[in-house]
Amino acid sequence: MIREAVPADVPAVAALELLSFPDDAWTPDYLTLAVDGGLPTVSLLVADSEDGAVAGHAILSIVFEVAELQRIAVHPAYRRHGLGSDLLVEVVGRSAAAGADRLLLEVREENAAALALYAAAGFTEIDRRPRYYRDGATGVVLQLDLGKCT
Length: 150
Ligand SMILES: CC(C)(COP(=O)(O)OP(=O)(O)OC[C@H]1O[C@@H](n2cnc3c(N)ncnc32)[C@H](O)[C@@H]1OP(=O)(O)O)[C@@H](O)C(=O)NCCC(=O)NCCS
Known about the structure:
By secondary structure, the protein is an alpha+beta fold. The protein has helices spanning about 10-20, 30-35, 85-95, 110-120; strands at about 1-5, 40-50, 55-65, 65-75, 100-110, 125-130, 140-145. The protein has a domain at about 1-105: Aminopeptidase, CATH 3.40.630. The protein has a 7-stranded mixed β-sheet with strand order 1-2-3-4-5-7-6, sandwiched between helices. Helix 1 crosses helix 2. It is globular, with a radius of gyration of 15 Å. About 30% of the residues are buried. The structure holds coenzyme A. Coenzyme A binds near residues 79, 80, 83, 85 and 116.
């Protein structure tokens, strides 16, 4: 199940942040701020596993017509069970419902799992940024057209 995070989810999300993004993990304080509504453009979503654990999360920012997926991660114990896709579907739905016309994200060019997930969801590459990450890795900018009809 995908749902909005509550304060009790912060320790699990913070642990998954550290595991997945050790160089720039969101801190518990910052995650708490997001959960408490202190970052008005930001939503923190979590995916519950069938056994009730917080198995994944996504952080979405929407500013007018541009939505940005800032984070998506699924705990290694729960990968390849569709939770990443479920989180992404929710992110896309919320972005479109908020009036965004595109959803953007950056991904390391060697991150085959994430690139496959995004390709399956219909994202296309719009830019490539050499040395985008601290360790010198190239960032790939992907976009999903949300097909806003006004
Ligand atoms: C990317 C990530 C969120 C995917 O989560 P997940 O729950 O395993 O994804 P799903 O089970 O929904 O997979 C959906 C599809 O994505 C693709 N995919 C996911 N993991 C893959 C892998 N390791 N290798 C190849 N394709 C993969 C497949 O097409 C998969 O469909 P399939 O299982 O029917 O073949 C997860 O691997 C993760 O947390 N990685 C570390 C954090 C990260 O890199 N986040 C992205 C930063 S931009």
